[in-house]
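fold-stage: in
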Amino acid sequence: MRDFTALLPMKAHSERIPKKNFKDFNGKPLFYWILERLLEVERIGKIVINTDAIDILSKYDIMQENSIVLRERVEHLRGDFVSMNRIIENDLDFMGDG
């Protein structure tokens, strides 16, 4: 039974480590390691990636998975000083509509 949705917020820019989500880590970008683990969890039916990096993510072959939903992060939730709680709230609102 796949009855859970995983939230994977991901931004293009990182203040401390530039482009950290896309840096190579043992042959794969860092985000890919996390995504692969989420895809392996049998009870996760959907993975919502809320991001301002859709253009970067489109270079990877992740959309072959039907369970992945890419969401373009709204402008007012972008930046280094936006609370992650606000981003999660935005995703929960989105999922409540769908």
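fold-stage: in (second)
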Amino acid sequence: MTALSPIDAAARDRAGRLALGALLAGAVAIGFSPIFVRLSEIEPTATAFWRVALALPLLAVWMRAAGPPARAPRRPSSVRDFARLAICGLFFAGDLICWHWAIRYTSVANATLFANFAPIFVTLGAWALFGERFTRLFLAGLACGVAGAALLVGDSLSIGMTTAAGDLLGIATAVFYGAYILAVGRLRAEFSVATVMTWSGLATAAAILPVALLLGEPMLAGTATGWAILIGLAWISHAGGQSLIAFALAHLPAAFSSVSLLLQPMIAAALAWVLLAEPLGPVQAAGGSVILAGIVLARIGSRAARGAPKA
């Protein structure tokens, strides 16, 4: 491996720190999404549609205002480019649809736990599809993070045949979100954040809308407060949070990023405690601490793997 000059190494470190900050800020922003969904006046699938659809004008204006890129990243220019962006959006649609159906057929705790298996599938996908290698320290951080997520919801877990369908949908949520993270990571090597978010978002909204209509869910909020909640979900959690994550994925490994996103259920639990008066006991606090330890271990393990010479 060619050694970086001190200037290049310093620039890479600065970009890495900025990306890590964006990733963690994105995790905080999407941590608000369960609160918005809980407060929404309409059904979950319709809420998921508006989460993306109301963000699209904001993202489209951003993409338009950015103008033609003077250098990489480039703009999509072929059927293959648009197809890849659409597939990325379909992965996210699958994530949202499976997540909301999982909540219907199993407990919120079960759905949350299984959805947070996404880092496992990201790591497996990065290894199987792209030949990425991981240090034992990173894998220890991954295990720590998932164990912390289990502790966070452990008091409410209920495993059995009655929850099997919902539990499988929770695992499907993790698979779809893992595929989405890997796809965004690859697309960000070629396209800007605004481009990825806008074009993939169009595919996401187009895939969710017919599902919501087939389910017969009312599509319109009945009050200004209901629309304000949907706008908050769209602008804060989607346009804000997911865009920050997409920015970070151009500079950080997808596997490490997915482990760091385990911060999201911890933020959601803290917000539910503050805003909805939902109990947060010592076991949940311990789970949050284990998640943080897992993120730190995964970060150290990722940096070690990145700095190691490639065979």
